[in-house]
Amino acid sequence: MAPRPYNNALRKEVEAETLRRIVTATVALHAEKGATATSHADIAERAGVSVPTVYKYFPTKSALLPHCMGMASRDAPAIDPGAILAAPTRAECLARLVEAVYARHAYFHPWMRWTGADALALPELAQALQEGQAELAALARGVLEKALSCVLPETEMALVQVLLDYCTWQRLSESLGAADDVNCAAATALRRILSPFIESE
């Protein structure tokens, strides 16, 4: 006898809900203590499922990563090049770029603070971080070169990348505290780096 359609649909619905609970629990645990410190037993307890169930869906920590990164990224603040480039002045454009990039760093901080150790143990995470850094660098270059109407030298771009990096945001946040102060300090530094190009406005 062929399986009844509604039984198949119900089973798929239950599996999807189980998957969602596991990934949701894992995302929360990764924010609390990092990926390498999170065990399948931790995930099972948080998700309200058995340990074998977690292994059934995700045999390894690496198998969980794409799902967790996808869920964590879903609500991340976007960086909108159009909104940045709509700024009335070049200086304001730089400030908007800093604000947008740093807002993403602040959002991802609960997970990013563990990546130093996690990336060493999980090559897939290290690769994802490298790809993310490359995407951010390309976006920043595109925005800045349009805003400043020039091709930026590699030295200036290297300094820009350091300034927009998560670690720089983290150190400024630890030192200055308030997001407005952090953004202002970074925007001021960015203007100094790019002052020869801004002054030609």
From TrEMBL:
One of its GO terms (molecular function) is DNA-binding transcription factor activity. PROSITE patterns: HTH_TETR_2. It comes from the Bacteria. The keyword Transcription regulation applies. Keywords: DNA-binding, Transcription, Transcription regulation. This is Transcriptional regulator, TetR family. Residues 39-58 bind DNA. InterPro entries: Homeodomain-like_sf, HTH-type_TetR-like_transc_reg, HTH_TetR. SUPFAM superfamilies: Homeodomain-like.
